[in-house]
Amino acid sequence: MIKIAVDAMGGDFAPKEQVQGAMMAIKLIQDIEITLYGDELAIKPHLTNSERIRIVQSEGTIDMGEKDPIRAIRSNRKSSMAMALSSVRNKENDAVVSSGATQALIAGAHILVGRMKAMKRTAIAPVIPSISGKPVILLDAGGNIEIKPEFMLHQAYFATIYAKEILGIESPKVGLINIGTEDGKGRQLDQDAFALFKENTSIDFFGNVEPKAVLDPPCDILISDGFTANIVMKTLEGTAKGVGVMLKQELKRGFFGKLGLLLSMKNLKRFKKRLSPEEIGGAMIYGLNGVVIKAQGSSKSVGFYNGIRQAANVVRQDVINKVNHVIEKEGE
Amino acid sequence: MIKIAVDAMGGDFAPKEQVQGAMMAIKLIQDIEITLYGDELAIKPHLTNSERIRIVQSEGTIDMGEKDPIRAIRSNRKSSMAMALSSVRNKENDAVVSSGATQALIAGAHILVGRMKAMKRTAIAPVIPSISGKPVILLDAGGNIEIKPEFMLHQAYFATIYAKEILGIESPKVGLINIGTEDGKGRQLDQDAFALFKENTSIDFFGNVEPKAVLDPPCDILISDGFTANIVMKTLEGTAKGVGVMLKQELKRGFFGKLGLLLSMKNLKRFKKRLSPEEIGGAMIYGLNGVVIKAQGSSKSVGFYNGIRQAANVVRQDVINKVNHVIEKEGE
After folding, report:
1. What is the least distance, in Å, from the CA of A210 to any CA of chain B?
2. In which domain, by residue range, is A216 found?
3. What is the pTM of this model?
4. Other CB atoms closer than 10 Å to residue B250's CB: what's the count?
5. Which among A215, A230, B221, B246 is placed 20 to 30 Å from B260, CA to CA?
6. Is the ipTM of this complex over 0.95?
7. Are residues B238 and B214 in the same domain?
8. Tens digit of each residue's pLDDT (9 = 90 or more) over B203-234
9. What is the dihedral of CA A273, A277, A282, A284, to 10 degrees?
10. What is the pLDDT of residues B72-84, one digit of tens each?
């Protein structure tokens, strides 16, 4: 049995959507057991089953807008997020899924789960949408603001194994996010990373990729430092949302426009769904001695279920040990 | 009379659209004279007027995909771009408008026009679209990959004066692009720039802005180093384009969808226009001892005309001297 810890209190619609997502996972995935960490009184009304699922009472929560996430985690060891994370260190569970505050989850995972032996830095790796429909891994979307090229290479190993084992991509290509496609473009960091990636044989290095191609990249994994990749992710989010608002403003105009909009409703909904984080699943935190998945804060039950499914897959495919193995081999 | 040098040979549709744009400018703006630099034989067929407009023959062009823009400019002094730029240094013209290769234009402007006394770095500042329709200045979109906070402040002065004098924004607000809105976020550079901007009284500093708000920012000017701002611009471009492709794919589906699409055509065209660089005008290169406007490479006549209009405005409002003045005053 794969044991999943669910932070039932994190997220905009907690605990309802988290508990319903967990119920869905219990029903659809046969080899998992779930422990819900949270407020029993708030959780119970949404619990329709007690098979392979139990509640552990927590106290207090980590606020979504927490300014000092490290302090928040340290001073709230009984919070649902902290308890779920600690249960992985104690081997009570194999994985954690949380929609709680990202920075608190990264900090908490670092402190309470601990780093894996071979990786010196953690990183957060969301999967972003693409025109072709293929999943694309973006990292580091918010872990390390300043980073060395060798740690970026470790992240590339992790993403490569993840893409193979979890996303089913046979030979995942790695691209470095840069302001131009030519060799030697960008800052010193980008040039050093390029040289390091190019000579490495454990990854399939594509080269530099401009974010003009962010929704249609010639690779499966897009890597940069935690500042740059986070800027890419937030610009992508902001543009997609903003373009949606502008589209709505324009489509409503005039009588034929309104009629056209009415007829296009179903297609527009599908379009919106394609860009929705719900459909894409959670972001994995790389570099930990356990599996931690960050589901979107706005996750509804399906989104949260997808996070649980993803967590179970990562455990089942033994991803972390496989990464440890590659880094140790390469380090020789 | 304001004298404008037009690089007639740069851009995807040169010289036709450039010449037609220039003709439009001559017709609509009474106080300008235009010199077209380019191949007389290719230009002539599109020239419908000879009042306040003349041709100066050039030789050779700067390739759009030029790998070494500095070398390209140095070894093509008779190219239309180089001749147009040199004419500003020689005081034959007040401003240059070109749709040629961006990096070559920046390098060429640096070498052939020269830096203004007070600014130590050049920067390129496109105007990006927004949901509300207000113009937003983004910089540095590709000049300086690594930069000091004091040079970013000089750019903020320039953008503030530009926004006031050219865009008609009474009290332009300056935001720093960052991965979070709180004070103290980001890299050392971002933290240092924040401190410097905060204590300055010549700009109206808003604080940090996340690129989630790139199409709806709480400020009029978005600043970061040339790597980061270029990443934002390219992610914005790529996402807007990619979302458009996905939208088209979805809207076409089914009978009602096709009918809806047909009825929405007019509105969709207007939507596309709102995101089009044509409508927004050219990017100005800040920090030069003359006015240089980069029109989009894909400019059609209206887009190129907008670049000329913009160049004439910058000359008319004496923007460069006003910026020199502020930097000298602040430097005391």
Report:
1. 7
2. 122-279
3. 0.90
4. 20
5. A215
6. no
7. yes
8. 999 999 999 999 999 999 999 999 999 999 99
9. 130
10. 888 889 999 999 9
